[in-house]
Amino acid sequence: MLMNRLNRINSIQLLACITLLFAFICPAHALFVSPPKDPIPLIHQIFPQATDIGEKSGDVPFWTIKNDDEIIGYAFETNDINKIPAYSGEPVNMLVAIDPQGIYLGAKVLEHHEPIILAGIPESKLYKFVDQYPGLKVSDRLKVGGNKTDNMIHIDGLSGATVTVMVMNVAITKSATKVARSLGIISASDEVIMPMATILPDVYQKSDWQTLVGDGSIRKLHLNRKTVDEAFAGTAAEHVDEAQPEQKQDTFADIYYAQANLPNVGRNLLGDAEYNWLIRTLKPNEHAIAIMGNGYSFKGSGYVRGGIFDRIQVLQNEDAVAFRDLDHNRITDIYLDGAPTFKEMSLFIIREHHEFNPGTNWQLELLVRRQLGAVDSLFTSFKGDYDALDSYVYRPPVVLPEPELTLTQQVWQEKNVEVIILGILLLTLLATLFFQDILVRHPTFLHNFRHGFLVITVVFIGWVWGGQLSVVNVFTFLQAFMSDFSWDLFLLDPVIFILWGAAAATVLLWGRAVYCGWLCPFGALQELINVLARHVKIPQVELPWAVHERLWAIKYLILLGLFGLSLDSLALAEQFAEIEPFKTTFLLKFDREWPFIIYALLLLLINVFSRKFFCRYLCPLGAALSTGNSIRLFDWLKRRPECGQPCKTCAKECEIQAIHPDGTINMRECHYCLDCQITYFNDEKCPPLKKIARKKQKYKEQQIQTVEVT
Question: Any idea where the FMN-binding domain is (predicted)?
Answer without folding.
Answer: 86-179
